[in-house]
């Protein structure tokens, strides 16, 4: 399958996933004529809401080559009641920037490593692939021992879903897993020329049923502040807010993530007491 056909298929699959999650009543259809064979809205109903023909919308979902203006795509997004993140993602699928596979950095400047090392909280630098390329010792003690892993193993998405430690010790694993997969899918679409993303998602889906279920939902979310609630074996219950700074020195592929203790919890003291013992 050519690159252009693949992009059209991805767009079609995304539209289908958003249509199937929307109940008729949510879209203003109070009566249903005939039995619904699939969940969500019918293609004809989306077409009515978007002001396009049923055939035209069907061809879009099927990944056929049809000409679509931005106005039409935005109208379909409104019909499907997409969130702001989802609308932005739809526009990127409609008119992606063909940049090819980007060059990946394997290390950061010593000055940035020094900044990370001086932080009192767990911190690391990762790229869109979620490959961790720099970290401090607090991150090794609280999150996972990055220093003992090879470059190929140090991939957050795989660590998070394949290491049972997180499933057993994170108090908000389900919520964080859904958020992580939605962000990862947005990275996959943004890095359209990098086959690593598709191959990694396929391997994870084959190895982990939870990832597979979440991946099939086609949810999209841009990276934002998130919570990381951990029952740490040595430090006790910890509550962090993960703050991510995207684009380090104009490199949009790099993300600087700091696990900041949530105000009003005993996390900061527990973290300090534990790190004082082990570092």
TrEMBL record:
CDD domains: HTH_XRE. Residues 40-87 form the HTH cro/C1-type domain. InterPro entries: Cro/C1-type_HTH, Lambda_DNA-bd_dom_sf, MLTR_LBD. Pfam families: HTH_31, MLTR_LBD. This is Helix-turn-helix transcriptional regulator. It comes from Paenibacillus violae.
């Amino acid at each position: 399958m050519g690159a252009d056909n693949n992009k059209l298929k991805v767009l079609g699959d995304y539209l289908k996933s958003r249509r199937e999650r929307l109940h008729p009543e949510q879209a203003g259809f109070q009566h249903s004529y005939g039995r619904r064979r699939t969940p969500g809205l019918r293609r004809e109903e989306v077409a009515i809401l978007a002001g396009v023909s049923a055939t035209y919308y069907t061809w879009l979902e099927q990944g056929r080559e049809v000409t679509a203006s931005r106005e039409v795509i935005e109208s379909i997004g409104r019909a499907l009641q997409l969130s702001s993140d989802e609308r932005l993602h739809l526009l990127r699928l409609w008119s992606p920037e063909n940049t090819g596979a980007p060059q990946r950095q394997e290390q950061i400047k010593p000055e940035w490593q020094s900044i990370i090392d001086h932080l009192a909280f767990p911190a690391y630098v990762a790229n869109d692939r979620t490959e961790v390329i720099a970290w401090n010792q607090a991150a090794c003690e609280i999150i996972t021992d990055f220093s003992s892993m090879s470059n190929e193993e140090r991939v957050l998405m795989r660590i998070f879903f394949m290491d049972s430690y997180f499933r057993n010790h994170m108090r908000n694993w389900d919520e964080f897993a859904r958020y992580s997969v939605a962000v990862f899918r947005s990275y996959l679409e943004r890095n359209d020329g990098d086959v690593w993303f598709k191959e990694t998602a396929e391997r994870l889906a084959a190895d982990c049923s939870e990832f597979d279920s979440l991946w099939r939902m086609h949810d999209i979310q841009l990276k934002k502040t998130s919570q990381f609630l951990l029952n740490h074996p040595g430090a006790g219950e910890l509550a962090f807010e993960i703050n991510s700074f995207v684009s380090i020195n104009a490199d949009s592929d790099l993300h600087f993530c700091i696990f900041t203790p949530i105000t009003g919890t005993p996390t900061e003291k527990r973290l300090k007491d534990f790190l004082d013992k082990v570092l």
